[in-house]
Amino acid sequence: MTDKSTSAGKPRLSPAERDRRHALVRGYLRDAEVDAVIASGFNAFYLTNGLPGENFAILPTDESTPLTGFVNGRHIADIPVQTLLDAQDWVTDIRPASDFVHSPMQVGDTAAMVGRIKELGIGRGGRVGVDAGLSHLVVEQLSAALPGVELVQLADVFISARTLKSEEEQAMIQEACRIWDSAVESIRRFARPGRLGAEIVHEGIRAMWDEGADMDTWLFLSFGKHASQNPAVAELCHSREVQRGDMLTLTAMARYGGYAGHTDHQISVGEPSALHTAMFESIRAVREEVLSHVKPGALHSELTVAYRKAAQETPFQFSHHSQIHQFGIAVPEYPGSKHRVKQEFVPGKQEQPDFVLAPGMVYSISPTLISADGKDTFLGGTALVVTEDGYRMLQKHEIEILVTDGA
After folding, report:
1. Which domain-ending residue is among 140, 162, 184?
2. I want to staple 220 with a disulfide (CB 3.0 to 4.6 A). Which of 246, 250, 251, 252 is the partner?
């Protein structure tokens, strides 16, 4: 939640951005011929800019009717709802609802949402959209309480709306990337032999908080004599001590105002080995080849093909987890049907749907190489936004192997 007290000079999302989003989503709702949509999770955040304890939001298709945000009842117990209304400038109708998120043992009910739908005059013959985040229990209760109202799955509406980032969104993501760049330097200074992985993670998170990151900001850290970028290894490294000669691989999940800063860096404890140096030089070449294909009108598949072809020109292997994807509020994100290319269905084919690059798409491009023996993984993180004439970097930190002296 970016509230009215955001520090001077820091980017924030304006009511004009709210109006842009609501108009965009309402256009999709009219196309789907629904009277309103119920959003949850990141989709609710997209409409409200985040409310404390938020669980759902209802956006009517009618432009003259405001959005309603629903928060867990506990979040406005013993305080007036005006407290939340005064703290932000996006939502003018906030109501309590069951604690679906914070009370997993509580069955909860949809009475508050049902009441709002009835207030909107949506009855028998009406159509209400729902996103993919609503549980079966919620949908079941809505169906029982609203006989004759058709519930329509509209997950693609929000995926499509969130695909192209506005200038304000890009500024939020760029600030999250700046926060991460600063934290990388703090981690480089802090990481030493004998430090536990958990201590280094804590230092990185503190450094991001000091720069204004959200409280739920975090990072992955994998390390060892063999370079690795893997969530399971990162978890195991929490209780391990760093040793001289280790290679640290950092993956950012910095967050600012609900938006992610997402890229990767590697830090050598002592001078990097000949293998790691060679892998990194190959990463540079592969990355440049992939970036040469980033432009409006290109297909996403062109990036992955360029990655694999360039990787095959090196002494190393490509990774099936190519590390080329979009991000924004969520990591990763994928575009909606508006940007997808119609493809022939091939049974057993596991390729993701292809799509066309367009200005406003925010990408993490971290092409990955694996050593010939499969023991080391190297990558070069890049965060960028597709522009009218190519792309613009969202990070200032150059890709390089950072070195801590290992003392």
Report:
1. 162
2. 251
Determine the pLDDT at residue 101.
47
User: In whole angstroms, what is the distance from residue 256 CA to residue 2 CA?
Assistant: 9
CA 240, CA 198: separation in Å to the nearest integer? 8
Quick check: is 350 in a domain?
yes
User: In this predicted structure, what is the pLDDT of residue 75?
Assistant: 87
Phi, psi of 20 (to 5 degrees): -60, -45
Specify whether the CB–CB gap between 109 and 140 falls below 8 A.
no
Tell me, yes or no, whether 155 and 179 share the same domain.
no
* pTM for this prediction: 0.93
Q: Pairing relation of β-strands 401-404 and 264-269?
A: parallel
Domain assignment present for 393: yes
pLDDT of the residue at 103: 47
Pairing of strands 94-97, 68-72: parallel
Q: Which two tokens stand for residue 78?
A: 């013993």
Is 260 in contact with 217 (CB distance < 8 Å)? no
| Res 405: pLDDT | 82
Distances (CA, A) of 356 to 24, 162, 342: 20, 15, 11
Domain that holds residue 227: 167-404
Residues in the chain: 407
